[in-house]
Amino acid sequence: MDLPCGLSQRVGASCSGLHDQDVHSTTSSRRDIWLGTANMIGGSMVSGFLVYAIATDNPTRVYFADAGHGLAFGVGITIVYFMATDVALYWAHRILHRPWLFRTIHRWHHRNTTPSAFTASSMHPLEFFTYPAVVMLPIFVMPVPMLGLIAVL
Fold first, then answer.
1. Measured between alpha carbons, how far is 69 from 65 in angstroms, rounded to an integer?
2. Residue 63: helix, strand or coil by DSSP?
3. Cα 8 off chain centre by
4. For the segment 2-52, what is each residue's pLDDT rounded down to a tens digit?
5. CA angle, corner 108, sides to 105 and 21, nearest 5?
6. Rounded CA gap, 125 and 127, in Å?
């Protein structure tokens, strides 16, 4: 029984039946790692600025204490926030599968044939910043407790 090429290489077997173009090249792997690293650095910087803004002048609706909302409201709004962002992330990803968006943006994500922790964020920068935007935009319009935000993220 033939093992998938990635697994075959890990256990020392050969990749019988596969052509060179089917095997993820070292150049592609390096490109994916560099792109993923650049995306993570950019995303971390944006997140850092947002956290700083929340901690100083808080332009969002995130609240730290009870703020008169009560525990039940905090738990309920956290669940609503989680469900709303989860659905929005699903649809954002589905929209990226539309032909034009797939060709121009989302294909970058699908070209990686050997995903790993190092290449998981290897995608077009516009796609990479779409997902955090979908998750962060609601905190500017709906009150979310800080602990609820931490639990969801």
1. 9
2. strand
3. 29
4. 444 444 444 444 444 444 444 556 777 788 889 999 999 999 999 999 999
5. 140
6. 5
